[in-house]
Write a structure and sequence with these properties.
single chain, 322 residues, mainly alpha, two-stranded antiparallel sheet, 2 strands, elongated
């Protein structure tokens, strides 16, 4: 075989090997070149977007993003002016601010990180939050005082009602004790040694039941005055009935108005006023003890005992007789 033939065969063989081992590169996409018109439109669109004012929501979102990014960064930004000023004064990252405290065993209270920010998101002035908190505390305290005062008022009302009921009960018991004492005195003076009620001065009555006698005399005088007024409209002043009693003539103005009636109802009685100023329970206690000492009579037992020892009587108070 001629040498040219062998060379051609070797070349064909090499071409076949190159074909089998060769790598195909992906064709790089050719970007279409921007035309002048498209570039002008793009620049105009970007300029319009930059000149367009952002909405409040967009500004707030950007501010929130920046704030969160700053707060999430614990270290001081080395590119900030604050860091450069502190570095000029000797500050090193990771160290604390302020004068170093000698090793005394006390914890180091110097700041290692910047003070956190407290962002205001409302339009109120500085210190408004503390003022709101103070007003809120004052309102809570005022409500608490109101509730407490209402509770105290309710308790005082119940106590006052209970006291009024007890005073009314004592007043009723004292009125009954005065009638009993007056009856015991009349029984003791049944022999006629004491002056009669019609001629007896009011001051001669015991102050313990003098108020009962005075009130009864006042009622009688008022009754006579009403009777006198009614009769004076139907009877002549010159009319005189020989059978009419002396008290009726006085009431009907048949005698001189200056005639002595025997009761100083309009005069001041300091002793009676001082006694009536006492509590009903005190007046009742004094009257009950007087009847026990004077007549050996127990107001609660409703009976008279033969001796001062009053054997069989449970005691001197109402509770002793329950």
């Amino acid at each position: 075989m001629p040498a040219q033939t062998f060379a051609s065969a070797a070349a064909v063989e090499d071409e076949e090997e190159d074909y089998l081992t060769m790598t195909f590169e992906e064709p790089t996409p050719t970007t279409k070149k921007e035309t002048l018109t498209q570039k002008k439109k793009r620049l105009a669109r970007e300029a319009e977007e930059r000149s367009r004012p952002k909405s409040k929501a967009q500004l707030a979102e950007e501010e929130r993003t920046k704030r969160e990014a700053a707060l999430n960064t614990a270290n001081v930004d080395k590119s900030s002016k604050g860091f450069k000023m502190m570095a000029a004064l000797g500050y090193k990252p990771g160290s604390a601010l302020g004068k170093e405290i000698a090793s005394t065993g006390e914890p180091d209270k110097r700041l290692l990180e910047p003070i956190g920010l407290d962002m205001k998101e409302d339009r109120s002035g500085i210190g408004a939050d503390s003022e709101k908190k103070r007003r809120f505390r004052d309102e809570i305290e005022k409500q608490g005082e109101t509730i407490k005062r209402q509770k105290v008022d309710a308790d005082e009302f119940r106590v006052r009602q209970q006291k009024e009921r007890e005073e009314k009960r004592y007043e009723g018991q004292f009125y009954g004790a005065m009638k009993v004492a007056e009856g015991l005195e009349e029984d003791a003076n049944v022999n006629g040694s004491a002056p009669s009620a019609k001629s007896r001065p009011l001051s001669r009555y015991n102050v313990l039941w003098r108020g009962l006698v005075k009130q009864r005399l006042l009622n009688e005088r008022e009754k006579r005055l009403r009777y006198d007024m009614d009769q004076s409209l139907s009877r002549l002043p010159t009319y005189d009935d020989p059978d009419e009693e002396r008290e009726d003539k006085i009431a009907l103005s048949r005698k001189a108005q200056t005639e002595e009636v025997g009761f100083e109802l309009d005069e001041e009685d300091q002793e009676l006023e001082e006694f009536e100023a006492l509590e009903p329970s005190q007046k009742l206690e004094k009257l009950v003890m007087y009847m026990r000492e004077q007549w050996h009579y127990c107001f609660w037992c409703k009976s008279t005992y033969p001796s001062a020892e009053m054997e069989g009587c449970p005691g001197t108070t109402e509770e002793d007789h329950d």
